[in-house]
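Thread: Newbie trying to understand structure tokens

Hi all, I'm a second-year student working on a class project, and my supervisor (Dr. K.) asked me to get a predicted structure for one chain before our next meeting. I've only ever worked with sequences, so writing a 3D structure as a token string is new to me. If someone could post the tokens and maybe explain what I'm looking at, I'd be very grateful. Here's the chain:
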Amino acid sequence: MTTILVTGGTGTLGRLVVERLRAGGHEVRVLSRHSEPYAVDLRKGGAGLDAAVAGVDTIVHCASSQKGDEEAAANLIRAARGARVPHLVYVSIVGVDRVPFRYYKSKLAVERLVEESGLGWTVLRATQFHDLLVMMLQGLSKLPVLFLPAGLRDQPVEVAEVADRLAELAAGAPAGRVEDMGGPEVRTFESLARAYLKASGRRRAVVNVPLWGAAYRGFRSGGHLTPERAVGTGSFEEYLARRFGSGQVRAESGRGGEGRPGA
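---
Reply by user tm_fold:
Sure, no problem. This is what the structure looks like when written as tokens:
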């Protein structure tokens, strides 16, 4: 039986990877800051991390945050080398080498740590999940007018499909940098925003606003897209239908409830 450690194993992606690996007959350890018996803060490392990786055949590194990713990865790699873990799988983001966005720079740095770790490794880059896009749009639509960065497109992918691919890679041999994984279609950000407004029952004026800076230019040029690898099948509308149901019902029953969770 293969023993696999999933970091960030209680998160949006990680918990699905855990489910799929267990369904495949693997023994799975879940590492997160608050999940016993492997409750570990990767940014600190220590004996708890050493115990988590001991005897593991593969690590799937899904844990990520807005700060400290490089430190966390370095600690994980150090522990994995000490335990002679044969395979480290890392999930990254399409465009981290093309868009000079701060978070992307951190993800690219982690990729390099993985590649230079001396371990057997696999790196999968995916486009942004539907969940993240909705979280962004929820924040932007708190105002009466929904302001969007002009000229942007996106290619959101279903997180469950990325989990399927990661579980497949984790069960196999180290493969290096594998082909990117993108959602089924490249869409304008405005069309995605209008689909979200319709599904959630919100009424907002939509205004496209030109921005500036190298990161914005990188996104506007499509550096975060992979149209040639549009291998995902789940559409944004299908995700919205599962999450919100009928937008018309929500509009009629949920007015005045903008402050409620999920509103």
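A couple of things are worth pointing out once you decode it. Confidence is low (pLDDT under 50) at residues 247-263. The domain at 3-128+158-177 is CATH 3.40.50.720 (Rossmann fold). Feel free to ask follow-ups in this thread.
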